[in-house]
Each structure stands twice: as C-alpha cells, then as structure tokens.
From TrEMBL:
Residues 132-231 form the OmpR/PhoB-type domain. This is Response regulator. GO terms for molecular function: phosphorelay response regulator activity; transcription cis-regulatory region binding. Residues 4-118 form the Response regulatory domain. The keyword Transcription regulation applies. The modification 4-aspartylphosphate is found at D53. It comes from the Bacteria. The lineage of its organism: Bacteria, Pseudomonadati, Pseudomonadota, Betaproteobacteria, Burkholderiales. It comes from Trinickia violacea.
Length: 253
C-alpha cells in the first residue's frame, strides 16, 4: 500500500524539498499552501497523514488543526513548528496533534516521525471491532466496539494512540508495565521506540481521567519500572502493589 501524505506548507523551498524527499521514499505527496482550505480539501481528498506547518498566512496550523478536531476529524497530523515555539507545540498536542518536528529539521527526522505515526495508527485500528464487553472504572466506561470513552455517560474524544494505550492498561489492570512493554504492545516486537508518542498519550490520558494529573489515581507511575493502571483509583496503590509483589517473590524463593 502506498501512503498518501498531504503537506500543508507556505514556504516553497521547504515544500519542494519535503515533497521530493518523501516521493523518493515511495510516498504519494500532495501539497496545500495554506491551512485555510485544509478542511475542505480533506472532504474531497483523503490522505493517510497530514504534515501541517504552524506559521502560515490566512489561517495558521493551530487554527486549522482545531477546526478539524472540533469537526470530529481524527486524521493523523504532524506539526511543523519553529524551535522556540514551546507554547504552540503544547497547544498543538492538546488539540490532538500526533507529533511535531521543530524547524529547521532534517527530512530524515520527519520521515521517521511519519513512519512511527503511521505504524501506530495501523497497529491500533483493527479491521473489525473487538467483541469485548464494556469496561467500567470510577466515573468512566470504555466501549471497545465503538472505541469510545464515556465519563458520566458523556463521550470524551480520544486520539487513536490514547485509546490504544488505555486499552492496554485496561487489559493489564494492576500490572506494572515498563515503557518497553507498552511500546511493544502498541507497535509490535522489535520496533524502535525513540519518539515521544507514549509520553504524549499518557500525558493526555491523565488530563482526561485524573482530577489532578500531577497526582494520578488511575495511571500511576512506578518509579524506575514503568506504569500501572489502578481501576479503583486509590492513591498509593502502585507502591503497595509493588511492595506486596516483592514480598511474594521473596517468599516464593
């Protein structure tokens, strides 16, 4: 399958360089010079992924991304940002960007990001819905068939990466999962995982699930080991679970 990339970039030098590079790597590439027509373009042409520059005339990338997400469009998006624009990067991630690349960048870095995002989306969007019953915890309910998260009956919009991460946590509740294990379950065995997508997914999940993301109850950190999903949301459960497991292991030996 040949993937189709839509590059939204107003700088003709960057646009031509990226287009030629990606085409040499086997991708179909189309271009758009402004974020103003992105939503309309996606109604007539459906790429696999959008590479979206933030700094553009008429409509900037942040506004274009927000318009897509408000409309419920979940297409993968990688932002191109100025290196100093930390606020734009944070806002972009909060709005639902899958990743970002800071300018100036090596086209090979962008290629690596594209491959990672496509691999992640391909791995977590199955061909048929899973016949798993809804899972309830706290105020939340996960519906695997419709790929929805409900809070007090109200649907919460989740990116594909967030849903996949939550699904893994739910399937392995009260089990410590290392970063390597989480990445392997998300992407498959033997895949390199040097990008920030796992951090982003966990960060977003905590902002959605936790009353206080700085003191998480559901997705707790086990320092030096990884993360643990605590369905009952008890603070300190991670530490107690690890201690009890260590005692049981010692007794078994």
């Amino acid at each position: 399958m040949t993937h189709h990339i839509l590059l939204v970039e107003d700088d003709p030098v960057v646009r031509d360089l990226v287009r030629e590079f990606l085409q040499l790597e086997g991708y179909d590439v189309s271009v758009l010079h402004s974020g103003k027509g992105l939503k309309r373009r996606l109604q007539v042409e459906r790429p696999t992924l959008v590479v979206l520059d933030i700094m553009m005339p008429e409509k900037d990338g942040i506004s274009a991304l927000k318009e897509l997400r408000v409309a419920g469009d979940d297409i993968p998006v990688i932002l191109l940002t100025a290196r100093a624009d930390v606020i734009d990067r944070v806002v972009g991630l909060e709005l639902g960007a899958d990743d970002y690349v800071a300018k100036p960048f090596d086209p090979r870095e962008l290629l690596a990001r594209i491959r990672t995002v496509l691999r992640r989306h391909g791995a977590i969007v199955p061909g048929a819905p899973e016949n798993l019953p809804p899972y309830r915890f706290g105020r939340f309910e996960v519906n695997f068939s419709s790929r929805e998260l409900l809070r007090d009956g109200e649907r919460i919009m989740l990116r594909s990466g967030e849903f996949a991460t939550l699904k893994i946590f739910v399937k392995h509740a009260m089990t410590v999962l290392s970063r390597a294990q989480l990445n392997e379950k998300l992407r498959g065995h033997g895949v390199t995982y040097r990008d920030r997508s796992l951090d982003v997914s966990i960060w977003r999940l905590r902002r959605l699930l936790e009353n206080d993301p700085s003191e998480p109850r559901y997705v707790q950190t086990v320092w030096g080991q990884g993360y643990i999903f605590v369905p009952h949301g008890e603070l300190g459960a991670a530490e107690r679970f690890v201690q009890e497991h260590a005692v049981q292991t010692l007794q078994a030996h």
